[in-house]
Structure formats: structure tokens, C-alpha cells
């Protein structure tokens, strides 16, 4: 059982509208110097929301892409903006319509990317986005929501992966790739993953049937008649993927797809952006509790070290997830 520190308790005892918290915001788009660790107002939950005391937030590539302004035209964010939309923490206040959670519940969620995120001591989440956290430390749970749901949605809701199908997963040691590999194996598929040489044994340990070192091997000369390619890389990797898919097969990507190339090779091409779903996330949490789905954390940083976290994420070399620690309860 956690003991609430006096400073946190003092904040939670203040009347609505007077509470402040530490948060990381951007007031304009740009480099890591735009990340401002500063005071912000504690949000007040709407009727269908819960207020979460953030224990940890996940760092994802979309965080720094938004910070850099790459999504400024299609995603009209209101500035200043609190970044980071993967969260794990405890519920401290319920909206008036919420009946499925109680204060003190351990939860995790993928927040609506168009709203303020979780690089903060507190955040709000729609109840439909939230799930009870698995029985692992909350700092690890924070690495689950986006990557796991992207993998699940791409494989099954978009790609309709079936048992005994052959799938090629690009970037198998990345945040999404690690979950996609494991979920595809749990579903009974034959899984081939691409990664760099230093991660080959690691990917094998997750259950891959074949592992291709993309730096020294050409996957397009090795893989034949795949039912599905799961692509989070794009570019030349996607361009070379069409030829490894059987006619009628599918390429699912989190990036833009070349529909002309797909038609030429008589395969289906679909791109998607995952929409968070608490029920889906709850099923993923149950797999984690059963021990059949591993969560891999590469590095953890404090909230004040957010600039270093973004720098590391931008290298593209993370094996698994990057975490920002926000609040650690004191032992009783």
C-alpha cells in the first residue's frame, strides 16, 4: 500500500481550480530546448473522465514528432501542450458519471493525442480509454498502452491475422515490434522479424521463428509468400516488402503506404493510426498477468530528464520502451 507524500496530499486537498503541478509543456514547436519543465494547472475531470496521479509516462516517437511540428498541419494542437500520451498511475478523482473505477485504483491508458498528455504529475483520461493496470510496477505498465494496442490493432483488427499464417515484422526489437512479434506468436502465426545483429538473440528469445539481420541480410531475398507484412519503418523497407507478400496478402503500416505498388503486386495495403480502447487494453493486461506477454523497458528517465529521453528516442536505437518516472510513492 502506498503512502501519499505530504506535498501531493496538500495538492489533492486544495479546491478545484487552485491546484498546480509540475509538467513538461511546449509553447512552440522546435527542438528539445522547447521542452519546458514548469508549473501548470491540475486538470479537472469531466463527467466521463478520471483524474490520474501519474506515476510514469511512456515516451514514443510521436511525442517528439509533435514537438518538432511534423503534425502541426493535420493535428491542430492548442499550445501550450503537455506531451506524452502513455500513462500509468492511480485514480485520485472520478467524474460524476464514472462507476467502473474507484479512487486509489491502479490504471493505465493511452490518452487522446489531441489533448494534454501525461508528462505531468496529474492528467485526465476518458473512462473508455482506461484499464486496470496489470500486476507489474506502474513504471513498466506505462510502456504498454500505445505500442501494444498498435500491434494488436494492426495484426488483428486491420490485418485479420489468422493462425498458421506467415508474417514478416519489420523493426521487431522496437516498441511496437516487440509486442507485434509476441502477439502474432500467441495467435499461432509463423513469425519472421527483422532487426540489427545485436538484437538477433533477443528477438529469438521472444519466440520468433526466423530472425533477419537487416544490416547484413536482404530480407527480400529470404522471405517468400508472406501472408502479411507489418511495417513501422516505411521508405525503402516498405518498397522492398511488396515482393515478399503472396498475391492477395496484406501489408499493414503505421506509415503512408504506396497503393500503386500494392496494386501492381496484387496485394492489399492498409495504413492506420490506433484509436485507444480500454477493453482492448484490459485484455492485453490480462496476457501480461498470465506471463505470456513480456514488457521490455530499455531506459528510464526522471520527468526533469525529458530532454535526454527525447534525444535517446530520436536515435531510433531503443530496444523496447523509454519511460519517464514522474511519482514514486514512499513505502509505508
Explain how this protein is built.
Helix 4 crosses helix 5. This protein has 332 residues and is an alpha/beta fold. Strand 10, helix 6 and strand 11 form a beta-alpha-beta unit. Helices cover 27% and strands 28% of the residues. The protein starts with 5 loop residues before the first helix and ends in a 7-residue tail after the last strand. The longest helix has 14 residues. The strands form three sheets. Strands 3, 5, 6, 7, 8, 15 and 16 form a seven-stranded mixed beta sheet that branches. It has a six-stranded parallel beta sheet with strand order 11-10-9-12-13-14, sandwiched between helices. The N terminus is likely disordered. It is built from ten helices and 16 strands. It folds into two domains: 170 residues, Alpha-Beta Complex (Quinone Oxidoreductase, Chain A, domain 1); 125 residues, Rossmann fold.
Which helices and strands occur, and which strands form pairs?
Blueprint: H1 6-13, E1 20-26, E2 36-41, E3 49-59, H2 61-68, E4 81-82, E5 86-94, E6 106-110, E7 122-126, E8 130-132, H3 138-141, H4 145-158, E9 166-169, H5 175-186, E10 190-195, H6 200-205, E11 210-213, E12 226-231, H7 235-241, E13 245-253, H8 259-264, E14 268-271, H9 278-290, E15 297-302, H10 306-315, E16 321-325
Parallel strand pairs: 9-10, 9-12, 10-11, 12-13, 13-14, 15-16
Antiparallel strand pairs: 1-2, 1-4, 3-5, 3-7, 3-16, 5-6, 6-8
Amino acid at each position: 500500500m502506498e503512502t501519499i507524500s505530504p506535498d501531493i496530499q496538500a495538492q489533492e486537498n486544495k479546491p478545484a481550480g487552485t491546484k498546480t503541478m509540475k509538467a513538461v509543456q511546449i509553447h512552440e514547436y522546435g527542438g528539445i530546448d522547447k521542452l519546458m519543465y514548469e508549473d501548470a494547472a491540475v486538470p479537472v475531470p469531466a463527467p466521463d473522465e478520471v483524474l490520474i496521479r501519474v506515476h510514469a509516462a511512456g515516451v514514443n516517437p510521436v511525442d517528439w514528432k509533435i514537438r518538432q511540428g511534423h503534425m502541426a498541419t493535420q493535428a491542430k494542437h492548442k499550445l501550450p501542450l503537455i506531451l506524452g500520451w502513455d500513462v500509468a498511475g492511480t485514480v485520485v478523482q472520478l467524474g460524476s458519471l464514472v462507476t467502473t473505477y474507484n479512487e486509489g485504483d491502479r490504471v493505465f491508458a493511452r490518452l487522446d493525442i489531441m489533448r494534454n498528455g501525461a508528462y505531468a504529475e496529474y492528467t485526465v483520461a476518458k473512462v473508455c480509454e482506461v484499464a486496470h493496470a496489470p500486476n507489474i510496477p506502474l513504471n513498466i505498465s506505462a510502456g504498454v498502452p500505445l505500442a501494444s494496442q498498435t500491434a494488436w490493432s494492426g495484426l488483428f483488427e486491420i490485418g485479420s491475422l489468422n493462425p498458421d499464417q506467415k508474417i514478416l515484422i519489420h523493426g521487431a526489437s522496437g516498441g511496437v515490434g516487440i509486442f507485434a512479434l509476441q502477439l502474432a506468436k500467441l495467435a499461432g502465426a509463423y513469425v519472421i522479424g527483422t532487426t540489427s545483429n545485436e538484437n538477433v538473440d533477443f528477438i529469438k528469445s521472444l519466440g520468433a521463428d526466423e530472425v533477419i539481420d537487416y544490416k547484413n541480410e536482404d530480407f527480400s531475398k529470404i522471405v517468400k509468400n508472406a501472408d502479411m507484412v507489418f511495417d513501422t519503418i516505411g521508405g525503402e523497407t516498405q518498397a522492398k516488402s511488396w515482393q515478399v507478400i503472396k498475391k492477395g496478402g496484406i501489408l499493414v503500416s503505421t506509415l503512408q503506404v504506396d497503393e500503386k505498388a500494392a496494386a501492381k503486386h496484387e496485394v492489399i495495403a492498409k495504413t492506420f493510426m490506433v484509436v485507444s480502447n480500454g477493453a482492448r487494453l484490459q485484455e492485453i493486461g490480462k496476457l501480461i498477468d498470465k506471463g505470456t506477454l513480456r514488457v521490455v523497458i530499455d531506459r528510464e528517465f526522471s520527468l526533469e530528464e525529458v530532454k535526454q529521453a527525447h534525444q535517446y528516442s530520436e536515435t531510433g536505437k531503443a530496444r523496447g520502451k523509454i519511460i519517464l518516472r514522474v511519482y514514486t510513492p514512499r513505502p509505508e
